[in-house]
Request: fold
Amino acid sequence: MLLHTVNKSPYQHQALNSCAEFCTADDALILIEDGVYAINHPDLALVHSLGTQVFAIEADVKARGLTTLFTRASDQYELVDYDRFVALCVEYSQQKSWS
Amino acid sequence: MKKPAMKKFLFVLDKPPHGSVTGQEALDAILMGSAFTQCSVLFLRDGLYQVLGGQDTTQLATKDYSVTYKALADYGVTGVYCRQSHLGERKLDTSDLAIAVQALSEAEVKQMFVDHDVILSF
Reply:
């Protein structure tokens, strides 16, 4: 049960691609900072298709004007606040940050 | 699942050396960590270049810290791993590496994450 964090845009960095390689259905991924630019990236769809739960920090999504894009995909990705992020960190036994 | 009294640390390196100080910081952390608990190291993707043999930083005028990886065994860090396909993508073989690295399958790498209590990424 890993909580993966990705904080880089998939169009510039390999972080999400690396994460997608090792995600499992028991894991969750939370997109933070520039990681939220992954919203329409195929690697995020791949992670989702593996059964990995996908979250994104709402503040980072809003700040970058991506709210509409996330709303369209709301059945796949859940926007969370920082309190929920902390709760997820506790819920999952380990964390793996990809950056 | 019962956790061992001593937490097992997994250090994951996925960036190449010399372009940033990340590798040097990772190595410092591994050597320090190994004084306190059981540590393993996993090289992914370009992280493999950290331990590629034959590095010569003379002209960069920086310290060639890659030789320090050879000290890992002396510090009790015996679990040093990579993913087999990441070697292949780079046309490398474990014999090209300066230290003994055990090549794992995708499933074995996933298990590696599960088997450790703390994962530190560099």
